[in-house]
Amino acid sequence: MEIILLCYEAAKVQVSNRSYSMSLKSIAIDTQLNWLASSELRNDNSAARFLPHGFGAYLVILLPLGIDRGVPIEQYSFSTRTIQDLNARVYFWNQYGIVNGNPPPENLEHITYREIAQQLGLPYDATFNSEAIFKAYGNHWPPHLGGSEAFDKAFIQSLVALLGADTATYFYGDAEDGKYHFTDDGLESWFESGIATDLDDILQQENDFPTYTFATDHSWCLYHQEDASWLVLGCSRSLAETIAASVALESFTIS
């Protein structure tokens, strides 16, 4: 596949009171995605099955979480069976500023998944993520844990710095995976080119990660499943070791 490397300008343009990189370009989907569909890992049960075969290493990278330590979670009841239960939940939420089950972002401090696993008495491995936390609380999300735009921004800055912030990059939203744009013809997939650091702008635009984010030279590839609390990265072994050693990111090597 012929890859055309573009010169990217550092200038920014204001859109909806946010600053977006002018390097982002919406482009037509042609042959750029063919290599993703040719993966030999599709029958693998690990998260690596979502990525093409041939990378030196595969990692699960956990998205950041925060905790409001002022919320006495031990006093919270997840029961919603009666009117009294529901009223008690509303009273608790109002008392601690919880909105739609989420603590105020300004009250959050970063917490590692390792610490949460220890609190819950669960194994800290590649199977531990937000889904495991949800199940640990009886299929309810605990109102003292949540995310924030500030955490996401810091996470992306740390990640793209390791991937190479100026690396020519493609961003693909797959409509079948819930990453779509509304058009006159219905729900459609979308595809943009830019540089790795544009991932922050993409997250602001879409309020979600793309299905796939990958270097145009195929040196690395990120996958995000709709509503998942993790990313899967395929990359070189040396890059995987660098990411695994990062104190800003929590990751697990997978086969």
Could you walk me through the main structural features you see in this protein, from its secondary elements to its overall organization?
There is one protein chain. The chain is an alpha+beta fold. The protein is built from 7 helices and 15 strands. The strands form 4 sheets. The chain has an 8-stranded antiparallel beta sheet with strand order 3-11-8-12-13-14-4-15.
**Major sheet description:** 8 strands, antiparallel
Q: Helix/strand/pairing class, anyone?
A: alpha+beta
Q: What is the succession of H and E elements?
A: EEEHEEHEHHEHEEEEHEEEHE
Instruction: List the strand order in the largest sheet.
Output: 3-11-8-12-13-14-4-15
What number is the mean pLDDT? 87
Q: Judging from the principal axes of the Cα atoms, what is the shape?
A: globular
CA radius of gyration is 20 Å
Helix content: 10-25%
Q: Which assembly state applies to the chains in this document?
A: single chain
pLDDT < 50 stretches: 1-19
Tally of helical runs: 7
Q: Note the beta-strand portion.
A: 15-25%
Gap from first CA to last CA: 28 Å
Give the beta-strand count: 15
Summarize, please.
The protein has helices at residues 34-37, 83-95, 113-120, 130-136, 149-163, 199-206, 237-244, and strands at 12-15, 18-21, 25-26, 57-62, 65-67, 109-111, 145-146, 168-173, 181-183, 186-188, 190-195, 212-215, 221-223, 230-235, 250-254.
